[in-house]
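Two proteins, back to back. First:
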Amino acid sequence: FQYGTAYFSHCCAVLAHLGPPEARAVWTERALRSLDAALDHVEHPDRFPPCAQIDAATGSAYWSDHRSFFWPAILRTYRLLRDMDGPDVATLRERIRAIDPERCFTSRPPGNWASVWLCGEWLRMREGLSDYPAGRFDEMLEAFFAWILPEQGLYMEPNLPNSYDLFTRCHLASMLIEGYDGPLRPRLEHLMATGLDRSLAVQLSDGSLASAYRSTGQTWTLGCQAAYFAMAAAFFGASDPTRARAAQQAGVRAAQAMARWQRPDGPYSPVENVLPPSWRVGYEAYTADANYSALALGFLAHAVELGIDGFAPAEPDARPAQHHVEHDPTHRAIAHGGPYSVHVNACPNTVYDAFGIVDLALGEGRSLHFASSVRHMQSGRRFNLGLALRETSGPTPLTVMAEETMTLVAPIQGGPEAGTLSLAARPQGKAFVYTLDAAVSAEGVHVREATPGRRTFKTLLVPYLRDNGDGAPTEVEVGDGEVVLRHGDEEAVVAFDAAVEATRCLPHGYENRRGLCGLIRVDFRDETEAIAYRVFRR
């Protein structure tokens, strides 16, 4: 299944190199066999490619050419086999030398796929196996900076996904730590600093990546974070120990998050749940276990090569209060404090996310979080934790703030205290302003949502993870002034002070990237301008 073969080969080579000596022969044979298949595919660019997409409704398969993804994994596998004096290394060397990159790899900068094969080509150049002109390489590399905002550390893939910002910067960082010394090195070094700051900011407290457009819930983003942070730790190790230490801890946080998605009786999950693969919960059309599981583990293998297994967070769940606000072009903000993170997206792509609090994470080693918008499977409507309006009392129709098309009336603001955020927006076609204020501390996440000057009946919607496939479905308990969610030995509490008219739980028919979901509707009794609530763990 396409490039999964190349990343499987790299994983096998790392296990042969670093694993138990008694298993070396087995892993070496697997690495060689899969490397041969991967090279054979790259050597024949005119050959019809295998499956690349799957239609969830019918199981139909579609093809496209992903050869660009093969190159770094092939070169890294070759280097490990060479260092271990593996068999057939001379033959492999000549086959790698014979590749014409612009014939075999059709993607071009500034598309993110091109960063992958350029990363591999730099590795080949370092090995002395490439005749690719240095000037042409630099020309290709420079094209990426037309899509990079260097001060924000952001690569601007269309629709601005956090996933492909990370993915592309990871491959550019690889060239830097692999000794790139051309004319673009100062720009790559600057991007390493600002990009690391961004990646540290948009990593949630559970180790995952803040949801924003496509691929966020794929486990390859966890592996890619582990690899990127390992490279950053190595790069800043001597020059900036504080940055290096932060990168080390973030890399471990990502690697530990990856460990949660190992299916006990099946293949490693390519998404952040362990439901059966055929259910395709959290899967993109282009996700398949054979590709994306191997890609995720391939990134992890590279992190292991760089020494990520030697790092350990000094103070788990002890992030100091901080916030990170991005204006144009993303219009997103995230705040952290203690074990908590809250991510607000004021300009979501509605195919994936809704407006407002898209993620609220409750710390490392836990499964129960509010992570990514929840979709009703029949209607396609999306919901976040937050406010809805009712014109009258009772179970009447809702105007859900997360569903509204919003225009910011002022940029998102970080508050005067660390870990605080505020925004004000106007729903399209509506004559009122909506405001959201959030404060994160070691005690929890405090939220206030309001329609200043407009008193209405208010509802708090609590979309929650019901089943991620781990055998511990979430239980819901409605108490006096709180909703308690229990998942195994984890508890998440949403607490409020206002008088409640009625609470309704809809436990079926919803999903998000973490699994099957439910929705709780808390209708407050009195007309007010605002609601306030606190989310914390017990």
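And the second protein:
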Amino acid sequence: MCFVADARHYDQAAREGDRGMRRLAALNRLNALACIKSADHGWLGASFSVCEVLTAVYFHLRWDQVVLSKGHAAAMQYACLYGLGRLDREQLLSYKDGPEGLQAHTDVSTPGVLVNTGSLGQALSKTAALAATRPEEPFVVVLGDGELQEGQVVEGLQTVVHRGLTNLRVVVDENGFQTALPTDAVKGQVDRVRLLQGLGLEVRRVDGHDVEAVAAALREHGEAPLAVLARTTKGGGSEALLDAAPPASWHGRVPEDDLYLRVVEEQVAQTGLEPLRVELDRYLARGPRPSATGARGGLSEKEGATGHHFSRCLEELARDDERIVVLDADLAAPCGLEGLAETLPAHRFLEMGIAEQDMVSHAGGLALAGKLPVVSTYAAFYRRALDQLFVNQTEGTKVIYAGHYAGLGYYTDGQTHQSLNDVGLMRSMPGLVVADPPDGRQTRRLLRWAAREAPGSVYFRLRRTGAGLDDEPSLVEAAAAEGVLPARPLVLTDRGFDSCLVAAGPLATRIALAARSAVGLEGWGVVVQCLFGAELDMGFYGELFGGAKRVITCLLYT
């Protein structure tokens, strides 16, 4: 079990005024660390960088209307809410522990959370609306510096200024890093102060790890709405953490047990609270090792993952086809594109930053110029660029769209990262073919077809797992081997069946294969539909199902 500081320690620190604020920040780091370590997954760097900012707002200014737009730092907001008595210990340690646990990104199901976050750029607009309805209350929205790349942020800031929402303070956590790269290396602003001032905001820059400085900057302002640029360090506030690895390493990394205990001892020392030190000594004397109680995030990909095979095949295709240009939205590492980012020349691997609409439209322009753009992001984030994708389709060009972590495969990261409706949304786009390969072999086959033969654009639903077929080639009937037209389905059993299960995607395929061992389903055929919206070989289908008496579909989009 992870070490947690309780309400008594918060009460003791809060009684010490400004000196207590530094102690409260250490308590919040300690409990945010417990939150993340309990799940063995989370974003420690972002949580630690925003620690003093949230401590200043919640504990120094005692303001309640706080929106954490940079949802990766959810563990720190949960630590603050726990310290204020709005969450209990069990809730704090339920981070990512299934549907009933705390969401990976802040969610309105949690007491004290005002809006859902995780899909960046939207929270400012929502907070502006809340602030406009309650002008007598102070509101604070905390953005990431990389989040300023999202176009809706600029739209929201213009609304804040136009409506004169001086009760809304905008804080930008300037820790200088995004998923893996420095913000300036992705798509930084040349002069962030002048950018915000040009939009009409009053701008102040402070040390974001100084609680008193942050509180002072937020407390008073002039006639214009206020933006505070808080200079911070990713993973800041812990020398033990930063001695072990540089700031960029702590995006989604969780410290091993030994380092975890060193950081705990360090933060307890920073609190200067003797009763807490005594409790830690007892904890260490029991010889515990923290154990994960929540649902693990599973960042490491399995070899059978369709997303893994897509990225590896794309590397092969890009070496031979100069037309291919890869566009990424600050997710190269999670989507397995690091190799392409390192080997392709700069004009063929475009890091577009946190700007999905710009990325999809840019891909459309490249297609008009005769290139073959391959767009990559999470499946869930295409929702914000559907209009741009639609316009691309009206131009009759060819773009390949990779939707990683489709379905519920990324369910532990909350509602904003789940993608169940992408099949319906993408199939509504004129001329767009949807590919849902069940395994690595079919992923590679369909990607080669999409790049070389498909007449138009193709959207790929990609997962963290596969159907488990890669190690069992005997399941794959000869007609579905390399070179077979994508117009035909994948037949996983002998064709001599009179009853058949039709599946789509890895999960449904696994279920269909497992179902054949159930009483009454022996001998049933299993057929996997890999493409939707493409021209199908109806003669093949007629032959395949000609003798079937029962056909059951199990097209699960999870």
